[in-house]
Amino acid sequence: VAPDGTFLVTTAPAPTTALAPIRMPGKMVAPAPMVAAFMIEGHEKPFVATYDAKAGRLSMPGPMPIPAGKSAQLWAIVGTGAPHPLGLFHEAGLRVEADAHSPTPMAEGTTFAISIEPEGGSPTGLPTGPVVGSATLIRA
To answer: Are 50 and 58 in contact (CB under 8 A)?
Structure first.
């Protein structure tokens, strides 16, 4: 996000490895926080989500409209790979959160997408409902 509030788009290739903590003698320094600006269908302004690699959680200001009897499911897409299901969004006060169930932390450049699925999530392991938002993970 540029200082004037506009979004900058880059075409750099997505990294293929996850970020690792920086190790210093006697200290452990965590990687810089990462964010993803979601454009959610029906909203004029983006939702800026934060990604906590240690907790494996993507959080964004809510509420996010989810039709009754449906679930909002979070997906990760690395490069040109297939979407990988990460979890379902749930309300957490004035925010919505998804627990990112992934064996490794998400890397900068990962694309996130949100689809509306049957209650409990996609029955196929791939998005079956409409994608209502997407974003790319970048360093804050």
So the answer is: yes
